[in-house]
Amino acid sequence: MKKKVGVVVDIIMYVILLVQMMYVFIGNNLHELLGIGFFVCLIIHLCIKNWWAKTILIKEKPASRRFFDIITILLVLTIIILMLSSMGVSRFLFTWFHFMGSADLHRYLATAVLTLGVIHGGMHGFWHAKRKKLAVVGIVIASVIAFALGIFGVPFLNRQKRSVEISYADKQPEATIEWQGNKPLVVYFTRMGNSNFEPDVDAVSGASLLMSDGEMMGNNQLLAKMVCDITGFESEAITLTGEKYPSSYSDTIVVAGDELKAQARPGVEPIDVSEYDSIILIYPLWWGSIPMPVATFLENNDFDGKTIYLIITHGSSGYGNTISEIEELCPNAKVVPGASIYCEDIPDAGDQLIELLRSWNTGSN
Predict the structure, then answer these.
(1) pLDDT score of 200
(2) Is 340 in a helix, a strand, or coil?
(3) What is the pLDDT of residues 334-352, one digit of tens each?
(4) Which entry of 3, 34, 172, 186 is 20 to 30 Å from 258 by CA?
């Protein structure tokens, strides 16, 4: 009976973990509740399999058993860290917990748990398999798929399928900051105003767009608005003068990839930064790099002696190569990385922006 319960609990854990990776379809609240269910199942699993801990120190055991022990220890440790990370990114059950609040870290940990869990479960199949080599191949393939799902699949689904609707009044930062010294200019690049959107654009609102009080906005446009509301800064959008990007996010990324390979410099409307000592540049990560219209803007202006504060939005890779690229384009400017904001976290970035701007304001004195 105990063994059967253990098998059922294990199956439930794997199902929950897979569903958790598809959180774009289930929503945040259910995602957190399922997370609680996963950790409850884990506790039951550990209670049932408590005999395993007693076997760790046994010296004489096959290599496969030693490998299994290592994987299991790594899995348990990663799950513990994932638990803390889950509380840190919580917006429903643990809003008071502010440690390890990185969405990137949370996704990487979840990917590690899924991958290690696949190997852990696969080892049980390995011991019962008659064709050991075939079992090893199966474990490797399954673990690669699990890893790819977390690193590439989840960000892709988040960009392509996630629809975002907000009320700006609920997201608007409450605090304001009195900037010391000359105010920077906020410059941002977004797909709004730079794409030929179709009438049903709301169907792709997860792809760097969102609905704010019934109005379509770009993610970076929203961040720029938040920054300006906090500080009273002026803002300018980098706007293409020539051919615009396609309505489809996937097609846009293809075009952006071609531009990157060619190091193209699409024409943009002029933005005069000569009267400013610094700018806050808000931009998305495309192919691990800055969008080429952003490169055009940087090349078209003289940033010698100026400070460029960076806020980047992304779906998987943080800053990518953008810091070094901007430093190369503006060699005599001071480039200050500030925030790398995961696409899902953009609507709730107000508090993060307040803390960031406070730190910049202190550093500007």
Answers:
(1) 57
(2) strand
(3) 999 999 988 778 888 899 9
(4) 186
